[in-house]
Amino acid sequence: MPAPPMGVETVALSALTGDGIDQLELAIGRLFPQDTGLRPGTLLTNARQAQAAGQAQTCLTRAQQALQAGLSPDAVLTDVEEALTHLGELTGRVVREDITSQIFQRFCVGK
Hints:
Elements: H1 21-31, H2 47-68, H3 73-91, H4 97-107
Helix pairs in contact: 2-3
């Protein structure tokens, strides 16, 4: 059997005996880390959604740090509101103009 390409993990397993299944499960787990900050079952289907979720998480982390530092509620609220805006992009409650433009370009709505 030829060597795998560099950077590609391989796992030897047997469908007949089941040997290597544990190693396969571990390898798959490394591809999809569990500590994403999202609840189980959450699926982000594109890079824009992943970016919005990441930005929301960053804003909430900043808000938590601001609370711990004893900053004013107004300072904390700014980060929380920004997080809500990013989450709104995921739920469809907030639609930025550039996203609307992408949708029209991608799907040719109205043509």
